[in-house]
Design a protein that fits this description.
Chain A: It is found in: Cell membrane; Secreted. Chain A: This is IGL c3502_light_IGKV1-5_IGKJ1. The structure holds 2 protein chains of 2 kinds. By secondary structure, chain A is an all-beta fold. Chain A has a single domain, classed as Sandwich (Immunoglobulin-like). Chain A has no helices and 11 strands. In chain A, the strands form 2 sheets. In chain A, strands 2, 4, 5, 6, 9, 10 and 11 form a 7-stranded mixed beta sheet that branches. In chain A, strands 1-3-8-7 form a 4-stranded antiparallel beta sheet, with no helix packed on it. Chain B is globular. The chains are: A mainly beta, B mainly beta. At the A-B interface, strand 4, strand 5 and strand 10 of A face strand 5 of B.
Chain lengths: ~110, ~120
């Protein structure tokens, strides 16, 4: 199975900060990667697919980049609504896997 | 708008069975891959299974293969997950998800607790 490793596990930041989360795959997954946001007690929400394509309705402060084994999710200017946990997901193989999550906390 | 409503969760003893259902509306169900994703209490997301739009392609995570069965009824806009030989480690919120492989629409989840 392809393993996905996110870093950091927890990130403390302030409103207005630029935030970057990294996701590494154990083998090349081309650009077959998605990012999700989850708030406590809620279902996850798709933000980015195919590594860098922004899902409809998602604010443009979110962006994704990378290919192969290293990917990043960037929030250009952190807003109060963005404090949440973020997950990457690979779908290069028929066995899909998620990263362990990155919690973005208020500093 | 898109709605996915899970049902069938609850408390079950180890070794027992449960059948989860998901009622879909607000989109053309028969056009979408459907998946079950689970989340153990306080833990991350785990993909469980997916089924293609026609039902011809199905895959399972190794952790549930041979114990869980995914199915769908496109005439009823419904997705199912038959869970047998349940273990304590299957305790989780189970989400019904439309889309694939990027997971577009999520239900609110149903809690399955496996405990004696």
């Amino acid at each position: 199975d392809i393993q996905m490793t996110q870093s950091p596990s927890t990130l403390s930041a302030s409103v207005g900060d630029r935030v970057t989360i990294t996701c590494r795959a154990s083998q090349s997954i081309s650009s077959w990667l998605a990012w999700y946001q989850q708030k406590p007690g809620k279902a996850p929400k798709l933000l980015i697919y195919k590594a860098s394509s922004l899902e409809s309705g998602v604010p443009s402060r979110f962006s994704g980049s990378g290919s192969g084994t290293e990917f990043t999710l960037t929030i250009s200017s952190l807003q109060p609504d963005d404090f949440a946990t973020y997950y990457c997901q690979q779908y290069n193989s028929y066995l899909w896997t998620f990263g362990q999550g990155t919690k973005v906390e208020i500093k | 708008q898109v709605q996915l409503v899970e049902s069938g969760g609850g408390l079950v003893k180890p070794g027992g069975s449960l059948r989860l259902s998901c009622a879909a509306s607000g989109f053309t169900f028969s056009d979408y891959y459907m998946s079950w994703i689970r989340q153990a209490p306080g833990k991350g997301l785990e993909w469980v299974s997916y089924i293609s739009s026609s039902g011809s392609t199905i895959y399972y995570a190794d952790s549930v293969k041979g114990r869980f069965t995914i199915s769908r009824d496109n005439a009823k806009n419904s997705l199912y997950l038959q869970m047998n030989s349940l273990r304590a480690e299957d305790t989780a919120v189970y989400y019904c998800v439309a889309g694939g492989p990027a997971l577009d629409y999520w239900g609110q989840g149903t809690l399955v607790t496996v405990s004696s």
